[in-house]
Amino acid sequence: xxxxxxxYLKIRKRVFLLVTMGVCIVMLQSGCAAMAxxxxxxxxxxxxxxxxxxxxxxxxxxxxxxxxxxxxxYNILGLFAFGDASTQTAAKNGQINTIHHADYSYTNILGxxxxxxxxVYGE
Length: 123
What we know:
Layout: H1 3-29, H2 32-35, E1 48-54, E2 67-76, E3 80-83, H3 87-93, E4 99-109, E5 113-122
Antiparallel strand pairs: 1-4, 2-3, 2-5, 4-5
């Protein structure tokens, strides 16, 4: 190799390293902000994650009820987010008038696809 080729090789390695670091940072941070607000956050996997946890903080008076409703929100590539994961929509979907308890589930596949589901229980 001559010095010109070595110079371009070094630049390509630096660009590759910066792009790789950027992708890793995005993957590590995608979806984490929403999970920090729940009273309990189960372990998160970097490559794959499929977990569930409660959204309630008052466990002593928790009854599940006879009905269940769900609502979902999605994220694609960290670029497109859509859906309605509200407790109101979950209650409407389950024909629930009084919510007794709420959980959430979270799925993440390589930061490419993410799904958050809110599950409400009640009457």
